[in-house]
Amino acid sequence: MDQGSQIGLIPEEPEDMWHAYNLVAAGDSLRSTTVRKVTMESSTGSSTSNRVRTTLTISVEDLDFDVQAGVLRVKGRNIAENPYVKMGAYHTLDLELNRKFTLAKKVWDVVALDRIGN
């Protein structure tokens, strides 16, 4: 893989989540779908909130693997334009089984390449 390239991954079983936990690192960028609560204000001043599914790309700062739930929580700042989330705003993406995510690294080392099977 070239420097700065990305790969789409879909964890299909709990062991895949463990591999993802060991693959994702601070400084990587990660893109995945998420649900955000969005509050809209009308011209009369009343507000309504809706849950909106959107795709975010974050610069990874921290991650936490919940073994019991099989969920990898990846925290970082939004680094791509999005109608619901400001640039630079913090967000946590929950990576779950059978949900695709895209991981980009500046440098893919031998260990990372071996982990994804390239």
UniProtKB/TrEMBL annotation:
Signal sequence residues: none
SMART domains reported for this sequence: eRF1_1 (SM01194)
Gene Ontology cellular-component annotations: cytoplasm
Pfam families: Pelota_N (PF26356)
Gene Ontology biological-process entries: nonfunctional rRNA decay; nuclear-transcribed mRNA catabolic process, no-go decay; nuclear-transcribed mRNA catabolic process, non-stop decay; ribosome disassembly; RNA surveillance
Listed InterPro entries: eRF1_Pelota-like_N (IPR005140), Pelota/DOM34_N (IPR038069), Pelota_N (IPR058547), TF_pelota (IPR004405)
Domain eRF1/Pelota-like N-terminal, chain residue ranges per copy: 1-118
PANTHER family documented for this protein: PELOTA, PROTEIN PELOTA HOMOLOG
Name recorded for this polypeptide: Protein pelota
